[in-house]
Specification:
Length: 175
């Protein structure tokens, strides 16, 4: 109900600007990969960004990502620096694009701006890593994108703000 209220507020606020905002909900919890795939499939936009309900974007995040993708037609996504906040505070700067380095350490967050057509070619298919571990689907997706020759580009001067919590999905999955 809270999410639907927020979506309706956004619809009211931006109705005069021609934005199309929809609320989609699965009847049961199918987890992050399925939710993102449903949203990407339903979208008609050329670019997509995913954002969990407890995370934040800098005010200029969407604009700067969009400008960078328009200026760089060979890139399939833009990834930004990300600030962890909450129970852990740490700034991780967006490093140079390096598929080899990324295979060793996930240095991109889920909140990149993607060209929708590139994302749909790969998508987040992985529901679980093993057993009940429900995380790393973004890392898996980035690796599959890179293995098909897709490339990202860093955005260093704005941030995605990622809430760190000991009760969040990632922490529960690691336990």
């Amino acid at each position: 109900d809270e999410a639907l209220g927020a979506v309706n507020e956004l619809k009211d606020r931006y109705s005069d600007e021609g934005l199309s905002i929809s609320f989609l909900k699965h009847n049961e919890n199918k987890w992050l990969a399925a939710a993102r795939t449903t949203g990407a499939n339903a979208s008609e936009a050329a670019f997509i960004v995913f954002l969990d309900d407890d995370d934040l974007l800098d005010e200029d995040y969407l604009e700067k990502c969009l400008l960078l993708l328009h200026a760089s037609p060979r890139h399939d996504w833009v990834y930004a620096s990300h600030q962890k906040f909450g129970q852990r505070n740490e700034l991780r700067h967006a490093g140079d694009f390096s598929p080899f380095g990324f295979f060793l350490k996930n240095n991109m967050s889920y909140s990149s701006m993607f060209r929708r057509d590139a994302w749909l070619k790969i998508g987040q298919r992985q529901q679980r890593v093993t057993g009940d571990v429900r995380q790393f689907e973004d890392w898996d997706m980035y690796m599959r994108m890179m293995s098909r020759g897709m490339i990202g580009t860093p955005l260093r001067d704005t941030k995605f703000n990622y809430r760190k919590s000991t009760s969040g999905l990632a922490a529960r999955s690691l336990r």
